Amino acid sequence: MVVGLVLLLAGPAFGQIVPGTGRRVPHVGDDFEDVRWSFRTAGRKSSQENDGRVRFPKGRSRNGRWDEGTKRGHPDKIERVETPAGGLPGSKGALLLQSMHTGIPGKKTNRQQQDDLMARTFQTSVSNSPNYLVRVYLPPFEEWEKRSGSTFGFRVGARATTQDQVVSHRYGKRIRRSFEPVMLDQVEAYWPGMFIQFLSKEDSERETDAAMLVCRAARTGKEFPGIALTPGWWTLGLSFTPDGAVHYFAAEGVGRLTANDRISSSYPYNFHADTVTTMFFNICSPDDGKTWSTAWIIDDPEMYVGSGRIESDHATVAPQRKVGGFLKGLFR
């Protein structure tokens, strides 16, 4: 399906692409309509972020479109369910994501941790205007985990080229040392996106429960507020423009996003993205060994590009480069 690609002006620093425009990448995302849909777990999940352990083989969906994240592991529950009322017309299946043990397997950290469900990788340059969207069902507030804080995330892996000063560098097997700093390119990995945060009356002075969307991240690296959310279906979208900016969209319901649904635009961490790699979803819990996260349901996550080649499987339209700044990237 090809939808007209429109570049919309949004002030002197940004253009924007409305998520859901361009050509859909057919092998990225899912509609969860196959009644045989399942996710195969493979023993204890990875927890590289906490203890450096990557445990193979990884969990993977039967259709090959979803993988366990090696950094934090997959959600504890990944199940095809009947689409809640008000979802996309004709949709019979959606995906439930929920977790209790979000840290190191067999241990409790008693602090907020998160699991990752990774979509099939499709790396492409931001010059191709990649954009993403997903429909998310927010249950009634009384069904949410009674904890204020982040509970669900929708994010995209991105890479940006920066320059770092060094005083020595390698030419083949020789290392050149200089009293003058040398500027070398570094490829930084980062993960912009949006989180749903719950404001619970159970652990605050609030009289009523509430929820809001927050965006990651501003130039400073800090999250910034988006919009208030209410129970029911919402459509969330992220897009990247050739200038390396990220654009955040959200609208109530499951209809097509429009330019009016843009929340904000940003260069997270003051990075200008070069390429994107994959979209993924976070499920957060207090990792106390007894409390389940809110049960999240997603439907029809999709990726689109405005230009560039789309191949039939695991397509890559930008060269892989060695990622620098790895330790810094772990904490973004």
Supply the number of structural domains: 1
N-C termini distance: 34 Å
Low-confidence stretches: 1-12, 312-332
Morphology call: globular
Mean pLDDT: 88
Beta-strand content:
over 45%
Structural class: mainly beta
Largest beta-sheet details: 9 strands, antiparallel
Radius of gyration: 20 Å
Helix content: under 10%
Could you give the count of β-strands? 22
Question: Count of DSSP helices?
Answer: 2
Verbal overview:
The chain is mostly beta strands and 332 residues long. It has one domain (2-330). The chain is built from two helices and 22 strands. The protein has helices at residues 48-51, 326-330; strands at 2-3, 7-9, 15-17, 22-29, 39-40, 60-61, 66-68, 77-82, 93-98, 113-119, 124-125, 131-138, 149-171, 174-190, 193-199, 210-216, 224-229, 232-240, 246-252, 262-266, 273-285, 296-305.
